[in-house]
Write a structure and sequence with these properties.
CATH class of the largest domain: Mainly Beta
Structural class: mainly beta
Mean pLDDT: 93
Strand content: 35-45%
Distance between the termini: 36 Å
Shape: globular
Number of strands: 21
Radius of gyration: 22 Å
Low-confidence stretches: 1-16
Number of domains: 2
CATH architecture of the largest domain: Sandwich
CATH topology of the largest domain: Immunoglobulin-like
Oligomer: single chain
Largest sheet: 13 strands, mixed
Order of helices and strands: HEEEHEEEEEEEEEHEEEEEHEEEE
Length: 369
Amino acid sequence: MTNTVLLLCLLCMTCFGARIFKRETKDPLGYVAVKLRSHQTIVLDGKLDDEAWKEVPWTSNFLDIQGPKLPTPRYNTRAKIRYDDNYLYVGAWLEEPNLVATLKQRDSVIYHDNDFEIFINPSGNVHLYQEFEMNAYNTIWNLVMINPYRNGYNIINPFPLDVKSAVYANGTINDPTDIDCCWSVEVALPFFGLRGFAETSSPPRSGDTWRINFSRVEWHYKVVNNTYVKEDKPEDNWVWSPQWVIDMHQPEKWGFVQFAEQEQNFTLPRVAYDVQSVLYWIQQAELEYYATNKRYADNYKDLNISSDSFDVSKGATPIVPGLKLLSIQLDVDYGFDAMLIYKEKDAQTKIWHIRNDSKQWWTPAICVN
């Protein structure tokens, strides 16, 4: 847990007695997924040559999972997203001069091969998120995480989702005598199947935002007796939106995908992002407090958190105006329930919660001054 806290990138500093909220990492990346028009279809053959793909932009090229300060990946990777009333479509192109694959049994641990991965947390609650992996043989693995690994190993593996997928290999798999070009993938994830854990509208409504990230695992190979053999080196992890640590299982750091009926510029959902960041920061303060006191704090004062914690003049990272501390209640099952309150313009006032297992959610505020 200590190493995890050190890598949070939500730095806790003490200033005039208050723990200061400071976010050191850059904002997550964003993408606008445009809905298919009624006459459009996507043929799942792995080629990404349908007009529906051609008219929307690629993501930026993937970076090292720890961010742009690490070396640029050896090979380029990029993705696109579309959707209709039934499916979330993901297409990806992966540069690869040496196509390698070994696993052919569905729901094998696919990242033991070079692979492409999709992570989806529709509600942004950090729980009940989807992981999908595939290799160049189009062998797939689908599972659902009940919570992040840092909060216990609770998964549904495999998760029965009627995924449709295809791979186009531009080269020859497992043939070291030639130089390959790349492989590309198309995946259709059914909204009906995602609905059971989405905790939000599935299919999404225009204007909705989901937390999503893409990952590529790339191993180092050498040729022995005309066969690809893994080298004794750690794998590379390349992602769309940086995680800042070597851990895909921190959903609060994934990118944002906004759903829209037509093309538009991406706008960071500032309220949702700031709320989630502050809640996670409070959770870490509680965990630090517990490590010292063997109990959780039932008030913000014991955590050295107050309105001063968000004072920009004292070095705090700016957050949306109106986001305020509310209270902390101890919980027999989940340790604590730390709460913030925020009233969006022309919308209901919401109380936002976090507990010790990272679960985040909101409830309507009733009779709160």
